[in-house]
Amino acid sequence: MSDRVAVVGAGEVPLRPLSPRQSYREMGFEAATRAYDDAGVTHQDIDSFVSVCEDFHEGTSITDEYTPDQLGAVLRPVHTVAGDGLQGVAAAVMLIRTGIADLVAVEAHCKTSNILAHEQVLTMALDPSYERLPGITPHFVAGMEMRRYLHETGAPEDAVAMVVVKNRRHALSNPVAAYGEVLSPDDVLASAAVCAPLREREISPPADGAVVLVLASEEAARRTPKPVWIRGVGWASDSPWLAARSWGQASYASLATQMAYQMAGIAKPDQEIRFAEVDDTYAYKELQHLEAAQLIPRADAARIVLEGGTRRGGRLPVNSSGGSLGMGYCFDATALYRTAAAVRQIRGEAGRAQVERAATTGTQRGLNQIEDCEL
Amino acid sequence: MDPRQAPPYVPLRGHPLTDDEFREREASTAWAPRLEYAWDAGIAISRFLEGLGQGAIYGVRCRRCGRTVTPPRAFCELDFKPMDEWVKLPETGTINTFSICYVTWDMKPLRVPQIPAVIEIDGTSPRVGFLHLVGGVRGRTVDQIRRQVRVGMPVRAVWKPPAKREGAITDILYFAPVRKRA
Ligand SMILES: [Zn+2]
C-alpha cells in the first residue's frame, strides 16, 4: 500500500471584509460543494472530516457540534482541530497514511466580521496573570517581534513596506482576494503607527470566508482528475513563555519546515522550491519566515524583497496569492486558502496569478509553510 | 412484572450563591471578558426570523428526500443539496420530549419551573422539531406539571403581541397544551 497523499479538490468562497448575506454554514456548504465537485466526489465518498475552528472565534462553545451539516458529514466521523488550518491538513494526512481513510475533507471558515471586539479575543491569548498588560492592543507582541527582527538583521523598514506593496498588488490578480490595491512603499510608511515599528498597513486586514480541501490516498487520488501530491508536512509550536522566545527569528517555522523537508527529501530548499506561500499576518513575518524556511539566507530577505526577487515574476515568487495582506486574514482558514492557491499554481490553473514553472511535469514543489504559535 | 415505584420527587434545597461564596480566599486572577458577537443569520434563518416577526412559522422542503424541516436551512444536511421550497407551517405541534427545570443557568433556584421541550411542528417530518418552552401550565411541582404535560401531547404557539415582536425565536412566548386541534 502506498503512503502517498494528494490534495484532490479545493473549493472556497471569495474572501470579503463583510458577508452579511450568508451564514457561516451557508458559506461552508458552498465551499464544500465546490471542493467535492473539483475532486469529482460526493459527500458520501468522503471517509472522514476535519474541521478547524475555535470557540472564541465562533461565539459558540463546543463548536465542533456545528461543523457536520455543511460538509455532508452528519453521523459520520468528524473531528475538530483548534489550531492552524495546516494542522487540519496534517491530521488528514495522518488519517490517510494510517489507512483509516481514503478520502478526507478539511474545512475552515471565518466570520471575523461577526466578532465585534476581536482584540478582546486576542488579548485572551495572553496569560491572564502576568501578560495581559492593561489597556494595550495585543498587536504589541508583533511590534516587539518586529523591532527585534529589524535589530538583528538590519533590515530597513522599506523592505517591510515592500512586502505589503507586493502582496496587495498580487491580490489584484486573485479573484478570491479581498484587498488588492496598488500602493507605493511611501503609502505604507505613511500609515499610522499601531505599535511602532509596526504600522497600520503592515497588519493584514480581516476577511470572512470558508474553504474546503479534499485529500486522498494514492489509490483514491488516481481516480480523481487533478491530484497534487503532498510531499511533506511539519509543524512545531513555540513556548507560551512569551518573554523567553527567540524574538528575532521564527524558530517554530524553522523546525516545522525542517520536518516537512525531511519527509519530502528536500536537501536544498532554496534551489528546489519553485514558489512559496508563507504566513504574512504581519508584513515583517514574511521576511522572517522566508529565512526560517531556508528559502533565503538569514538577513538577506530584505535585500531580495527590495530587488523584486519575491514578486510573481521573480526568482522565488512568494505569496503570489496576495498572502494575508492581500487576500485578508481569516484566522485558521488562512492557511487553507493559501494551500488552495498553491494547489491551483501547481495545476497551472492560477490564471492571472499563475507563477511560471510552478506547473511542470515531473517534480512539483510548492511550499506551504506551517507555522504556529504567534499572535 | 410490577413496575417499581420510584421515590417521589423532592424540591432542591439551598439559596443563590453570593459573590463572596464564589471567590476563594487564595490568590487568584480575575478577568471579565468583553466578548461580543453579531452573527449573520444567513439566507434561511433570516427568512425564518422575519416570518416569526409576522406571526408565521416557515419551513423548507427537500425536493430529494421529501423532508419538511423547521427551522429552515439553505441545504439538506442529509442529501447535501440546496433546500429552497418554502412552506408556511401551522402554529401547532407535538411535544417530543421535555424537562421540568428548577435551576437557572447561573445556579439560582426557580420556584416556578421552566419547561424546555422539543416541539415537532405539524406538517414537518418526524424528528425535526425545534427547541422551545412549554407554558400556560398551572402548578409548580413535578407531579402537578406532569399531570398536564406529556410526551406526544399537542401544543399551540402563544405569541408576543405583534408590536413587541422583533424577529427572534422569543417572538413565540411558549407552546401551550391544547385539548384538541383546531
Ligand atoms: Zn433531503
Write up what this structure looks like.
The complex is a heterodimer of chains A (375) and B (182). By secondary structure, chain A is of the alpha/beta class. Chain A has 14 helices and 10 strands. In chain A, the strands form 3 sheets. A 6-stranded mixed beta sheet of chain A has the order 3-2-4-7-1-8. A two-stranded antiparallel sheet of chain A has the order 5-6. A two-stranded parallel sheet of chain A has the order 9-10. Chain B has a single domain, classed as OB fold (Dihydrolipoamide Acetyltransferase, E2P), CATH 2.40.50.140. Helices cover 12% and strands 31% of the residues of chain B. In chain B, a hairpin with a 4-residue loop joins strand 3 and strand 4. The longest helix of chain B has 12 residues. Chain B is globular, with a radius of gyration of 21 Å. Chains A and B meet through helix 1 of A and helix 2 of B. Bound molecules: zinc ion. The site of zinc ion has 7 residues of chain B, from loops.
Quick summary:
With 375 residues, chain A is α/β, with parallel strands linked by helices. Chain A is 35% helix and 13% strand.
Topology of helices and strands:
The complex is a heterodimer of chains A (375) and B (182).
Chain A (H helix, E strand, L loop, with lengths): L4 E8 L11 H16 L8 E5 L2 H4 L19 E4 L3 H13 L5 E8 L7 H6 L16 H14 L3 H15 L13 H5 L3 E3 L2 E2 L9 E9 H4 L6 E3 L20 H14 L4 H4 L2 E3 L5 H10 L8 H6 L16 H5 L6 H14 L18 E3 L7
Parallel strand pairs in A: 2-3, 2-4, 9-10
Antiparallel strand pairs in A: 1-7, 1-8, 4-7, 5-6
Helix pairs in contact in A: 6-11
Chain B lengths: L18 H4 L19 H12 L3 E5 L6 E2 L5 E2 L4 E2 L2 E5 L2 E7 L2 E3 L5 E13 L8 E5 L7 H5 L7 E6 L12 E6 L5
Antiparallel strand pairs in B: 1-2, 1-5, 3-4, 6-8, 6-10, 7-8, 8-9, 10-11
Bound molecules: zinc ion.
Organism (chain A): Candidatus Segetimicrobium genomatis
InterPro entries (chain A): Thiolase (IPR002155), Thiolase-like (IPR016039), Thiolase_C_2 (IPR055140)
Protein name (chain A): Thiolase C-terminal domain-containing protein
